[in-house]
Amino acid sequence: MSDLAWFLVGALVKSIIAIVALLTAFAYMTLIERRVIARFQRRVGPNRAGPFGVFQPVADALKMAFKEEILPTRASRLVFLIAPAISVVVALTAFAVVPLGGPTAWGNSSIARAWAPYVADLNVGVLYIFAIASLAVYGIVLAGWSSGNHYSLLGALRSAAQMVSYEVSITLAIAGVLMFAGTLNMVGIVQAQAHQGIWFILAQPLGFLLYGIAAVAEVNRAPFDLPEAEQELVAGYLTEFSGLRWSLFQMAEYINMITASSVVVTLFFGGWTLGSLDGVFGLPFIWYFIKVAVFLFIFIWLRATLPRIRYDQLMRFGWQVLLPLSVLNALVTAAVVAYGLPWWVSGAIGLAILLIVAGAFYATARRSQPKAKRGAGQVMAAPTSVRLVADAPLPRSVDESQTTSVSASAGVK
Amino acid sequence: MSLNIATVAFYVIAIVLVGSSLAVVMLRNIVHAALFLAVVFGAAAGVYVLLNAEFIAIVQVLIYAGAVTILVLFAIMLTQNAMSRTSSPFSGQAWLAAIISVALAAGLIFTVGSSQMALASPNASANLANAINGGGTVARIGQLLYSPFDYSYVLPFEIASVVLLVAIIGAIVIGREE
Amino acid sequence: MVTLNSFLVLGALVFCIGLFGALSKRNAVAILMSIEIMLNAVNITLVAYASAFQSFAGAGHGERLTGQIFAIFIITVAAAEAAVALAMIIAIYRRRSTIDVGQINLMRW
Known about the structure:
The complex is a heterotrimer.
Chain A: H1 2-40, H2 56-66, H3 77-94, H4 110-114, H5 125-133, H6 136-146, H7 150-173, H8 175-181, H9 186-196, H10 200-203, H11 205-218, H12 230-233, H13 243-268, H14 283-305, H15 311-338, H16 343-367, H17 396-412
Helix pairs in contact in A: 1-13, 1-14, 3-5, 3-6, 3-13, 6-7, 7-11, 7-15, 8-9, 8-15, 11-13, 11-15, 13-14, 15-16
Chain B: H1 5-26, H2 30-50, H3 54-78, H4 94-113, H5 124-132, H6 138-146, H7 154-175
Chain C: H1 4-24, H2 28-54, H3 66-96
């Protein structure tokens, strides 16, 4: 009984540390993201508050805290107030089983083991993360519904459809890793990689790519940030939120990013393990944080590089490309594991599938490009799914003004 | 020591479960009812953890709270104006339903209370400690569901997957716009 | 003290609450929600029995988790049922613009 009580005390303290760390990480992620995107766009970014702008998050927080919190008259009061809280609580809860280090990170004594750097070492850790992540959609749906306006509701329904669709692929994409590891336990998966001497990305290149794409969609980041597509939906479910409540949604998004990066590192990139250097105090931590930081940078990079995709493209991609490939990956991996073949067989097959799919994509993309491009200089860059009333060539002057206006708006964006 | 953490946890979860089930049934606003449905599913997951069934608990959250309730919310939002807000959510036979339910509850609880089938009690505190210390039943459930050699439920499992496939196709066909 | 009976009583209570909802509500979605509550109550009972059997010496190796396996199958079927039922509700709403089960009485004798 006292074991249980000690466990609860330890979990409580570790949770508080994790929450404080995550919130600090969120604050500085916003600064880093703004600086990095500024570099991408040849700007400087926020650099006024303190050296390199390090006090910018403090300034932002103060600004947010003193903004007016608007409660729309048509809003459903209670739900409107708790929706942002649901988002943040769910995002924080999912992080509980992410291991930042092994059970013996602080040494081998029983006290050191009790304070190992994860809140809980659940037997069903991976499933726990996906179960909690599947609750994240509540925050968005409720926010959209309770705002009492149609743009918000549409954004919420979109996001619900998107997250439910991509959840299926995300779970199937990691099935391969689970088969290789033979456990659902996060610490166990890292130890299985150390034991087999590989990172699972080598055995599961296809699974990694599918998980990565689906994870970006799952945390609603660009290019899958349809729920808040401002050109179509004002700001989607965020339209009516202001001040601290708005920043709670931002908080949830960044914490989800951190969790998704940590899961990638744990499942595919060997977690904290360093081989023979594991015993050096603190080094596995730094190694782990470097890996997570790389994936956070990739999140920012994607946002700076890729345009937002259309809703029908999103759904078609999710159901017609991601899901079949995830099933294929699971089948191939199951066969490799069942017949006891070495890991590189599944890796090679995965890469081959990847090359074939990429080739097919490239070929269809080439074919669907407008013929006029190679002809008289008439550019009708409408996607094939858009049906025009009359497909007549535009006059030269109109065409030019359109082109310039498009490039101008792209520059502003 | 009868009042331990697991006992307290059981009573808290039980009160939340019964209270939110009542809220689902009684509330006039159907979106609020759907939210309490999510609370019901979460509380049931808590009960499963107390019963040393952490896999069922996670599956419960993943499928019921994460998918079924979202589907229900979808249906509610798509059929928003179908029910007027002013009229009663109960049909005329609600009093009969109440009598039947109360009678059934009384009968069931009397039967459970007077049963002579004295099985061993589930040791809730041991189960709770077991679940958080990483012991568990996942591997055994996997063997029971999939093993082609052992005593297993592999045939029912295959039938269940066919049922799911049929349900998917059926839902698409029924829900499609002509 | 929490015993098997506590879980059984809890399951019975929740089941009867769900039963009341399923019998008395007018909105088809609300009826579906009540049925899901009833299925959950049954699952609680089954898992409670499985947990009791785990410490029961007479049970065979496979039988100790039978309750949990049953619960998994019930969850599977309940998910399928929810999908089909909601599709039907949407289809009915599209045709008759109501989901009040009192007014969906075309096939009533």
